Amino acid sequence: MEIDLPEIRAEVEAVFAEYETALVANDVEVLDRLFLRAPTTIRYGGGENLYGYDEIAAFRSARSSKGLARRLARTVITTYGTDVATASTLFYRDSAPGKVGRQMQTWVRTADGWRVATAHVSVIDAQP
Questions:
Q1: Are the C-beta atoms of residues 117 and 41 closer than 8 Å to each other?
Q2: How do strand 113-125 and strand 42-44 relate by DSSP bridges?
Q3: Whether this model's pTM surpasses 0.85
Q4: d(CA 66, CA 95)
Q5: How far apart are the two ends of the chain, measured CA to CA in Å?
Q6: What 3-state class would DSSP assign to 50?
Q7: What is the DSSP letter of 35?
Q8: Rounded Cα gap, residues 123 and 128, in angstroms
Q9: What is the SS3 assignment for 7?
Q10: Which of 84, 101, 108, 91 is nearest to 1 (CA)?
């Protein structure tokens, strides 16, 4: 298995950027498309544990569109072979001073393109 093949990493970087744009714009249609439609898809959020695509889609459709703007830092995308990747990033929101968010995703290649199979989002106190 080859790690970080340049062409594969570029694909995942592009879809990660698409996800980020959709997230801050609350583009639920794109967010739903980018999650793997499977009962095994999991998203652990800041205040919720979502099991399966249906729970994740329901959460997205009910979520407020306010306060989603954020700045990313230390984003690391790593690919494993041609069909699996991880994306890890820190994020900061003006509405949460003194806090840092952490986001990790596992992306898998499907016949329909790259999809998030697992995700974790949490917020902690920022370190000085």
A1: yes
A2: parallel
A3: yes
A4: 10
A5: 38
A6: strand
A7: B
A8: 15
A9: helix
A10: 84
Looking at the DSSP assignment, which residues form a beta bridge with residue 67? Answer: none
Phi/psi zone of residue 53: left (φ > 0), alpha (ψ -120 to 50 degrees), beta?
alpha
Q: Residue 61 carries which side chain, given as an amino acid letter?
A: S
Structure tokens at 106: 């596992």
Residue 32, classed as helix, strand or coil, is helix
Q: H-helix or E-strand containing 97? A: none
pLDDT per residue as tens digits for the range 67-93: 789 999 999 999 999 999 999 999 999
Largest CA distance in the chain: 44
The CA distance from 20 to 98, in Å, is 22
Beta-bridged to residue 35, according to DSSP, are 116
What type of residue is 44? Y
Q: How far apart are CA 7 and CA 86, in angstroms?
A: 15
Residues 124, 96, 126, 60: is their CA dihedral positive or negative? positive
122: which 2 tokens? 């949490």
